[in-house]
Write a structure and sequence with these properties.
Protein name (chain B): ABC transporter ATP-binding protein
Number of helices of chain B: 10
Organism (chain B): Streptomyces diastatochromogenes
CATH topology of one domain in chain B: Rossmann fold
Number of strands of chain B: 10
GO molecular function, one term (chain B): ATP binding
Helix content of chain A: over 70%
Structural class of chain B: alpha/beta
Radius of gyration of chain B: 19 Å
Structural class of chain A: mainly alpha
Keywords (chain B): ATP-binding, Nucleotide-binding
Oligomer: heterodimer
Shape of chain B: globular
Helix content of chain B: 40-55%
Radius of gyration of chain A: 21 Å
Order of helices and strands of chain B: EEEHEEHEHHHEHEHEEHHH
Largest sheet of chain A: none
Strand content of chain B: 15-25%
Number of helices of chain A: 12
InterPro entries (chain B): AAA+_ATPase, ABC_transporter-like_ATP-bd, P-loop_NTPase
Order of helices and strands of chain A: HHHHHHHHHHHH
Largest sheet of chain B: 6 strands, mixed
Chain lengths: 281, 279
């Protein structure tokens, strides 16, 4: 790698002229997209250097689809509206694996706090909300790559998914928005508990209720009343509903789904931004 | 250091009765401080003297009321973004991201300081070359030695052409050769750019050698201020001795007997953690 630097060394080895002139600041609305792009770029660079996480995180969704999906397809115990259970399950598992990545994103921000990286970013001309939005979308990008892996696994298992590029774009939007919300939920908890171990505990405690209290595994209609109420307040349900509608063509409420996901992400960003100062102290 | 010019030198940092408390502990207690433009100013003191807290107030990390801290005339409470644009900051921990290459680490800071795309690669390369990391730029920072990480952090801070470089214990835990290397790069960069440098350290010998002026901090306040030579000669005069005392002697004189009481568990732990990562 070091044989081919991006810029010829002879040009910059002795020059420092650019280090004397401060860059012209971006202003207004252009700050936010620039910071989001910067954070997403970092996330992609890290994934390029170390893909281990990508592979290890593919194991669990593969097992859900292979074992749970195949078995329940045979049992036919869950009303799926006439489609094989593994097809019905696939969007739920895409949403679940994306959520699992996002819900532990707060651990990364605590690690960055301990390493001094967060403090250094907070001393740059980046409003806290822009930093959190950047992190949230970076988590979304990470989840999106994970979603692609699960979609490929599902396709290999014979799930009849759409290949309509517009609908796939909608899938990407739903995954990114939901991951932005769950990562902000995680960063909000990080801002409250302030330690990695406590955050791990909280993450473990809420992931399964979120997963089982959603329509990822079974339709809302067969849930007991109290669980239906939980599911109604659970953004994961709206994500799964959107993914199912887009990928399988089942009846969905796309307008409401995307509305809820966008509002949830915005609220998450606001909550996590307001607590970021506690991590800096 | 002073000259006969009519106007007094502009101030890079002005702290006016700066106070910050954690619960009942007054970490910084009515600190008055003026760092002149273009100088290397050393804030010295033992663990727990309040150096890092003062730095965190100046860098806008800790919120303080208006009127307490100004950076080149900008109030840190009212003009936070304007202050941050003038700062390059290297925290006490080794804060480079080990999962990114040296070049990517610097490029991130070029991006968040709004360096336009067309000059980003060149500016990043110049910053890396300025700290002697051009050859190692495409290796992961996780493979760097402690001294290299410090120089990488320096490059991260330099890429936005700051007017004030703030370094919190930049040589903590480094071996003597790496320490000299870091200081040589700080000096070279300052000579090339004319930026102001505010550095904290508890290595008195380094401060004596590299700082234009020092402030000796103890229990949240600056107890003595001047060039290292002024402080040392001043103590020699007061004691009436011929042998010139060291800066450490000056510090013991200023701090009195309370020297060992400073430095809570948290400071020591944080110092050890950094030393561990460096070592």
């Amino acid at each position: 790698m070091s044989e081919a630097p991006a810029v010829p060394r002879t040009e910059s080895a002795d020059r420092t002229d650019l280090l004397l002139t401060p860059p012209v600041p971006r202003a207004g609305w252009r700050v936010l997209p620039a910071r989001v792009a910067a954070m997403c770029a970092v996330e992609l660079q890290k994934l390029r250097h170390d893909r281990t996480e990508l592979y290890t995180r593919a194991v669990q969704p593969a097992l859900w689809l292979l074992i749970f999906g195949q078995t329940f397809t045979r049992i036919r115990a869950i009303p799926t509206g006439g489609i094989p259970y593994v097809d019905y399950l696939a969007p739920g598992i895409i949403a679940q694996s994306a959520m699992f990545i996002a819900i532990f994103y707060g651990i990364q921000i605590i690690w960055e706090r301990d390493a001094g990286i967060l403090n250094k970013l907070l001393v740059t001309p980046t409003p806290r909300s822009a930093l959190i939005t950047g992190k949230a979308f970076a988590a979304g990008v990470k989840s999106l790559i994970q979603a692609v892996v699960v979609i490929v696994i599902a396709a290999l298992l014979g799930v009849a998914l759409t290949w309509n590029p517009l609908k796939l774009l909608g899938v990407a939007a739903a995954v990114v928005l939901a991951s932005a919300f769950f990562s902000c939920l995680s960063m909000t908890i990080a801002g409250i508990v302030l330690s990695r171990d406590r955050l791990m505990g909280f993450g473990q405690a809420i992931t399964m209720p979120l997963f089982f209290g959603s329509n990822a595994l079974y339709p809302v209609s067969i849930m007991p009343g109290w669980l239906q109420a939980v599911s109604k307040a659970n953004p994961l349900s709206y994500q799964v509903d959107a993914l199912r509608g887009l990928l399988l063509g089942t009846p969905a409420h796309l307008g409401a789904d995307f509305g809820v996901l966008a509002v949830a992400a915005a609220l998450g960003i606001a909550a996590a931004s307001s607590l970021l100062g506690r991590l800096a102290r | 250091m002073t000259s006969d010019t009519p106007a007094p030198p502009a101030e890079a940092v002005t702290c006016t009765r700066l106070a910050y408390a954690f619960g009942d502990t007054r970490a910084v207690d009515e600190l008055d401080l003026a760092v002149r433009e273009g100088e290397v100013f050393g804030l010295l003191g033992p663990n727990g003297a309040g150096k890092t807290t003062a730095i965190r107030c100046i860098t806008t990390l800790l919120p303080v009321p208006a009127g307490m801290v100004r950076v080149f005339g900008h109030d840190t409470a009212k003009e936070r973004m304007a202050v941050r644009r003038l700062l390059g900051y290297v925290p006490q921990q080794l804060s480079a991201d080990s999962g990114l290459t040296g070049r990517e680490n610097v490029a991130l800071f070029a991006r968040v300081f709004d360096v336009p795309r067309r000059e980003r690669a060149e500016r990043v390369a110049q910053a890396l070359a300025a700290v002697g990391l051009a050859d190692a730029a495409d290796r992961l920072a996780g493979t760097y030695s402690g001294g290299m990480v410090r120089r990488l952090e320096l490059a991260q801070a330099l890429v936005s052409a700051p007017r004030l470089l703030i370094l919190d214990e930049p040589t903590i835990g480094l071996d003597p050769i790496a320490r000299t290397g870091v200081w040589e790069h700080i000096n070279a960069v300052r000579a090339a750019t004319g930026m102001t440098v505010l550095v904290t350290t508890h290595y008195m010998d380094e401060a004596d050698q590299y700082c234009d002026r020092v402030g000796l901090m103890h229990r949240g306040r600056v107890r003595a201020l001047g060039t290292p030579a002024e402080l040392r000669h001043g103590l020699a005069e007061r004691r009436g001795t011929d042998t010139l005392p060291t800066l450490e002697d000056v510090f013991r004189d200023v701090a009195g007997s309370g020297l060992d009481s400073g430095g809570g568990f948290r400071d020591v732990r944080s110092t050890r953690r950094t030393a561990h990562r460096v070592g």
